[in-house]
Amino acid sequence: MNFRALLLAPLRCSHAAMRWVTLAVLALCIGGGIVFAIFTSKPNWLWGVMALYGAGIGYVWAFYLSSLVLLAIDARRLCLPGVQRTVEAAVLFYAALSVLPAAALCGLFGGDMLATALLLSLILLGGLSFALLPRYFAMVIGLLPALHSSFAETLPIPGPTDPRFLAWAPYAVAALALLSVLRWRRLLHSESTSTTGLSDAMVLQYRRSGWGNGWGSAGIDSTQQVRQRPDWMQPQVDLRHAGPERPATALRIALGNSYLPKTLMGHVRTLAPTLLMLLVPAAVIALVFNRSHLTSSGMLWSLAAVSLGWGCLYGSMGVAIGIVMPLTQRWRKANTELPLLALLPGLGNQAQAKRQLLRTSLLRPLLLQAVLCTLLLAAAIYMHVGASALLLIVMSGLGSALCLVACLLCVIGGRPLSGWALAGVMTALGVLIGGASYIPGSMISRQPWTPPALYTAVLLGLWVALAALLAWLLRRGWQGWRRRPHAFIPNA
Fold this sequence. Notes:
This protein has helices at about 5-10, 15-40, 45-65, 70-75, 85-110, 115-130, 135-140, 145-150, 165-190, 220-230, 245-255, 265-285, 290-295, 295-330, 350-380, 385-410, 420-435, 440, 455-485. By secondary structure, it is mainly alpha-helical. The protein has two domains: about 5-205, no CATH class; about 230-485, no CATH class. α14 packs parallel to α16 (about 385-410) and α14 packs antiparallel against α17.
């Protein structure tokens, strides 16, 4: 084992796109921390800097350095001597490099070196655990910030500025380290080749494509996704209303995926994973309150409102992603599958076929997004949420709908976004929706969270900027759609 191989180990197991994205994220976080340190006047400014640096470290370990396990898996399967030891040494080296210099720098400015090291270790191991754990854990991890905000008073967790932080942080670091080691060994000795199931680790998906390529349909094929589902999740198609006299239904069956008409049991099977995921935060909320609270109708309504709120807030974005990605993949296939749709009976001439495709592809997804936004608004109004929070909810719903229409028109209009562009748009949408993710969690309290005026103004400004970009994309896609001679022409 030599030091050069140790340094270059992460480069051997990651895509070039991922390396550049990681470098950009880390540079932004470090630069933001420096700017914060220069211009802030708060006494605990060091913790703000460490929080920004920790966000970058968490991203690096969750999406970049965690790929070292892929190199270790390949080395074991190929029986390459010494490579596993190099990978393990690289993990320890980069872990020390992520924590020790920052802790020493914090100590030079009068900060608590031990607390800083523990905080960064928690973030580092949390990012690594996110990548090594099964995907259904990753779904729940995304709700942890909102859960922490909701239970800050009921279940206080001492932060790094609190002396009690040193009482629990070492045990948490040890537990996360043990969990990471066990998951690492489990992946190393597993003989499974699956990478897309909910029980498969997130890091196994990093092998398939680069950071943005999966958004450009270079990832797993939708047909393979259906084949890899267990029997109880296979869709049950409802073919009772299909035929030449119902071209819209026939087109939905041909498009498949989310458009597929299903029986009642088919819908239940499709929604089962999402419903089970929503039960997790609801169960956590219930467990932190005593029985007297749980027996009150107000508490039960609050639990329902929180679960409904998170489902509706992120569900609207999920509808956009679940529609755009399969259609992007289908319109980029270089085969005869898409042109054969033009032979469906009842579509009429070219102009009628285009209108039918546009109506079929947009009507139901937009209706579902409108229902989700309406349910969330009704729950927020029932819980007496403030006007600024309601405005953020409306912007989240409208932004998801505009994103769906713009991206879909770009696809069927022959001017699809590249993988990087589509990933950037969806990431921006997710970040802005995340800015309102604390609203459903705050419904559990008697005084729901009211965003500060500056916070609301900044988010609204970002929403306006994203809306302007989406409006330009919508116009671009619409122009391409009008010029297209036929609806079912694959994108080159």
